[in-house]
C-alpha cells in the first residue's frame, strides 16, 4: 500500500523536524554540560579563593596578635625603663645625700678632733702644772718636815 505523497512528505518533514529538535536538544545538553563544568570550575575557583581568603585572614589575625604582643612588651619595657630611671635618680639623690652627710661627718670629726687635741693639750698642761704643784708641795712638805724635825 502506497502512502499518499503528501503524507510521506509530511512524515519526512516531521522526521526532519524531530531530528532537528533532537540535534538542538543534544546541542543544548552539551551546552548545559559545558555550563555545568564551567560552573563547577568557577565554584572550585571560588572555594579555593575563599580558602585562600580565610588563610590570609587567619594570618592577618595572627600578625595582629603578634603586633599586640609586641606593643604590650614594648609598653612593659617602657614602664620598666621609666621605673629603673626613677630608681637611678632616687639612688643618685641618695648617693649625693650620703656624700653630703659624709662631708658633714668629716667636718664634725675634724672639728671634734681639733677640740680633742686642744683638750689633750690643756690636760697635758694641767697635768704638768699639777706635777709642778705636787713637786712644790713635796718640797714644801719636806722643808716643813725638816723644820719640824730641827725644832723638835
TrEMBL record:
PANTHER family: CYTOMEGALOVIRUS UL139 PROTEIN (PTHR37214:SF2). It holds the Pfam family HCMV_UL139. InterPro entries: Herpes_UL139_cytomegalovirus. This is Uncharacterized protein. It comes from the Eukaryota.
Amino acid at each position: 500500500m502506497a502512502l499518499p505523497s503528501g503524507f510521506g512528505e509530511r512524515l519526512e518533514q516531521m522526521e526532519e523536524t524531530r531530528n532537528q529538535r533532537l540535534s538542538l536538544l543534544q546541542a543544548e545538553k552539551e551546552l548545559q554540560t559545558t555550563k555545568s563544568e564551567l560552573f563547577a570550575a568557577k565554584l572550585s575557583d571560588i572555594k579555593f579563593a575563599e580558602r585562600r581568603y580565610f588563610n590570609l585572614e587567619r594570618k592577618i589575625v595572627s600578625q595582629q596578635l603578634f603586633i599586640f604582643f609586641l606593643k604590650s612588651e614594648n609598653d612593659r619595657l617602657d614602664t620598666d625603663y621609666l621605673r629603673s630611671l626613677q630608681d637611678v635618680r632616687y639612688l643618685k639623690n641618695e648617693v649625693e645625700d650620703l656624700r653630703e652627710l659624709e662631708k658633714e661627718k668629716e667636718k664634725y670629726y675634724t672639728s671634734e678632733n681639733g677640740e680633742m687635741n686642744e683638750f689633750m693639750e690643756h690636760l697635758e698642761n694641767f697635768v704638768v702644772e699639777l706635777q709642778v704643784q705636787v713637786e712644790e708641795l713635796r718640797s714644801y712638805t719636806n722643808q716643813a718636815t725638816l723644820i719640824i724635825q730641827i725644832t723638835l
